[in-house]
Design goal:
The chain is of the alpha/beta class. It contains 10 helices and 8 strands. The structure holds 1,3-dihydroxyacetonephosphate (13P).
Length: 255
């Protein structure tokens, strides 16, 4: 298992008010001393970014945005730029989440978002993953295509600024029994690392943390990390309640 796994909570639209975010943060902060061997990050919705950043101030928890706009110009009603996310205190941005891809964000859009985030010096969690598994292995080319369009000839990928989140779409939102199994995840993790070497030096590629996301709960978190050869987890529904998120941290930190 990774020395210091990274556990990221993606709150999606689960939490609505600053009060909920503050309550979650103060509860989590009380428990953090028990989990010094884990890196924890939270991605609240845009409306709760500032409040969540404030609530985790002076703690080890990093707070980031769930997406950023691909655009730079201001005439984009409803969009949130990387600069705006950064000004709200975000230190990282998730790009390419499948729930956004399903709303029409193409590989080209994801690439542009990644560029915008890099320009603001945000760290990036690039989400990739196939919608379905086929026996002929077409899912591998889906993943290759997502990686190559995001990373090919990227001017700078500063080591430490990029995290890949592999989230098979068919597992997202399900319960732990439906998550990917360890050996399949391991195969994918190796495949992703190998693919990354095409876009950066081998030594840099090997340092890029790979997260797994899709139906991570306390009951499968540890096994996925151990058997799947991934460096962390991207947690959706189970990160939306303090208790279930702490249960995940507990299971991962268990010696
Ligand atoms: P669930 O953990 O709810 O399956 O969501 C996974 C996810 O999409 C995290 O980004």
């Amino acid at each position: 298992m990774a020395k210091k796994p990274l556990i990221v909570g993606n709150w999606k639209m689960y939490l609505a008010s600053a009060e909920e975010a503050k309550k979650f943060a103060s509860g989590l902060r009380r428990k953090l001393p028990l989990y010094k061997n884990i890196d924890v990050s939270i991605a609240p919705p845009f409306t709760l970014l500032s409040a969540t950043v404030a609530a985790f101030k002076n703690s080890a928890v990093k707070v980031g945005a769930q997406s950023v706009s691909q655009f730079l110009d201001e005439k984009r009603t409803g969009e949130v730029s990387a600069a705006m996310a950064k000004a709200s205190g975000a230190t990282f941005a998730i790009v390419g989440h499948s729930e956004r891809r399903a709303m029409g964000e193409t590989n080209a859009v994801v690439r542009a978002q990644l560029m915008r985030a890099l320009e603001e010096n945000l760290s990036i969690i690039l989400c990739i993953g196939e919608t379905e598994r086929d026996h002929a292995g077409a899912y591998l080319s889906v993943v290759t295509e997502q990686l190559s369009s995001a990373l090919d000839k990227l001017p700078i990928i500063k080591t430490g600024k990029l995290v890949i989140a592999y989230e098979p779409v068919w597992a997202i939102g399900k319960s732990a029994d439906d998550a990917m199994k360890g050996p399949d995840l391991r195969e994918m993790s190796i495949f992703i690392k190998k693919t990354l070497t095409e876009y950066m030096e081998r030594s840099a590629a090997l340092k890029v943390p790979i997260l797994y996301g899709g139906a991570v709960e306390a009951s499968n978190a540890r096994t996925l990390l151990q058997e799947g050869d991934v460096q962390g987890l991207l947690v959706g529904h189970a990160s939306a309640q303090l208790d279930s998120f702490i249960e995940i941290l507990k299971s991962v930190s268990h010696k």
